[in-house]
Amino acid sequence: METVFTPVQSLSGGALIGLAAVALMLLRGRILGATGILAGVLLPASRYDWTWRVMMLVGMFAGPWVYFSIAGQLPKISVPASTLLLLLGGFLVGIGVTLGSGCTSGHGVCGLARLSPRSFAATGTFMLTTGLTVYVMRHILGA
Are 110 and 21 in contact (CB under 8 A)? Predict the structure, then answer.
C-alpha cells in the first residue's frame, strides 16, 4: 500500500481544524474534542449545550460537500479493511478515548496548545501506537 503525499490538502485541513478549535474556545470556552462533542449530543447536559454540539457535527459532515462544491468531485476514500476490522477498530478507539480521557483532536490539537502534560503523554502514546501499528501492518503482516 502506498501513502499519497498531499501537502496542500493536509495543510489546509490542519489550518481549518486549528481555526475551528480556536473559534470554539473563543466563542464557547470549550475544547474541540470530537468524541466529547458526539458524547454530548447523545447524552446532553442541556438544550443549549446540545445545540452547539449538533452544529459542530453538521459542520464535520458538511466538509466533504464543501469540497465537492469547490473541486467538482468528492474526495476519494479507500478503506482497505473489512467491516469487521472497522468495527473492531472503532471499539478499540472507544476504549482508548475512555481510558485516555479524550480523543486525538482534544489532546493533540487543544491539549498540546494549552501545554497540558496529560495531553503530551496521550499524544505521544497515540503517535507511538500508530507508528507501531503501521509498521506491523505493512512490514510484518504485509497488509
Answer: yes
In-domain check, residue 2: no
Give me the number of domains the chain comprises: 1
* Segments forming the whole domain that contains residue 83: 7-140
Is there a domain that residue 96 lies in? yes
Residue 1 lies in a domain: no
76-115 pLDDT tens trace: 777 878 899 899 988 988 888 888 888 887 888 888 988 9
The answer, yes or no, to whether residue 69 has pLDDT greater than 90, is: yes
SS3 34: helix
* Phi, psi of 6, rounded to the nearest 5 degrees: -130, 75
Q: What is the dihedral of CA 92, 93, 96, 97, to 10 degrees?
A: -150
Residue 70, C-alpha cell as written in the block? 469547490
d(C-alpha 113, C-alpha 107), whole Å: 9
Residues 27-45: what's their mean pLDDT? 89
Q: What residue has cell string 445545540?
A: 51
